[in-house]
Amino acid sequence: MGGRLGHLTLPIFSVLAAIGYVYYTTVFVAVSRWLGLSTAAGVANAAAFTALAAACVATYAAAVRRDPGRVPPDFVPDVEDAKSSVHEIKRKGGDLRYCQKCCHYKPPRAHHCRVCKRCVLKMDHHCIWINNCVGHENYKIFLVFVLYAVVASFYSLILIIGSVVHSVPKDEQSGSYSSRTSIIICGVILCPLALALAVLLGWHVYLILQNKTTIEYHEGVRAMWLAEKGGDLYHHPYDLGVYENLISVLGPNIFFWLCPVLNTVGNGLRFRTSYDIPISTPPM
Predict the structure, then answer these.
(1) Catalytic annotation on 127?
(2) With 70 as the cut, is the pLDDT of residue 194 above it?
(3) pLDDT tier at 279 (50, 70, 90 boundaries)?
(4) CA–CA separation, 246 vs 241, rounded Å?
(5) Crossing angle, helix 139-174 and helix 178-209, to 10 degrees?
(6) pLDDT for 64-92, tens place per residue?
(7) Is the separation of the CB atoms in 190 and 200 below 8 Å?
(8) Nearest C-alpha neighbor of 35 from the set 52, 21, 49, 17
């Protein structure tokens, strides 16, 4: 059972403990053994990894603390609004989507989270590792954290492998086994972690390029199957083309795409669709 937003849980403690252990082993064991903390190369690598680890902790804390987006209790979809060319309806009955548990209508792309016990704007998924949903308001922060974590994981692996390759004769003479044990444990943690994070990052980059959430991907698979069964073609209505899709998630300023600042387009209650684009400028 998940805790409330921002509350520390066992998975969060596990993530923070892993970050701390990897940081200590990388800087004070791997870099110290290989380059030395008194050399220019050692100081430069230690400083770079420290900055990267700090960025990981900061973006992780922001993803944990940031509300993913609440549906206003008085939200009512305006079916006569000319600016809203798409209104999501229930699969059965064709009625406007209404959450019986929250007792309000659902905006487009919003879903009810059984763990958080409320509806979340543009919900992607509930992540136990941040004890929070990933939605409209914190999706970019979550993505930037994963990106920083991937870079930090592979950077740490490079430093650890370098320390092992270049420090074996020295260790054999000194007979110190504690540092080798720390490096082995750190490597066991990092190898699957780096792979899993890289796959997760690749998955979300794929989703962003199509302007989909994880939930919409799975719904789209079924919709595509039903469309093909009926002899039609399915097109994701929120796919605006690669560049517009990137802007909708990362913000209009390309210089802030990799920064953990909230500059997401829109308020999460209404989204542009491919039907809003003039016929003369089709999606990419």
Answers:
(1) yes
(2) yes
(3) very low
(4) 9
(5) 160
(6) 999 999 999 888 886 655 455 455 555 54
(7) no
(8) 49
Cut 0.90: pTM above it = no
Q: Which residue among the candidates 56, 116, 119, 127 is catalytic per the annotation?
A: 127
DSSP state of 40: H
The Cα–Cα gap between 281 and 284 comes to 9
Amino acid at 261: V
Give the model confidence (pLDDT) of 240-260 as tens digits.
999 999 999 999 988 888 888
Query: Residue 199 burial by CB count (10 A; 0-12/13-18/19+): exposed, middle or buried?
Result: exposed
CA 265 vs CA 90, 133, 169, 242: distances in Å: 26, 19, 56, 15
Q: At 113, give phi and psi (nearest 5°).
A: -100, 125
HSE of 86, CA atoms in CB hemisphere, 13 A:
18
Asked if 113 contacts 133 with a C-beta cutoff of 8 angstroms, the reply is yes
State the pLDDT confidence band at 263, using cuts at 50, 70 and 90. confident
Euclidean distance between CA atoms 189 and 2, whole angstroms: 25
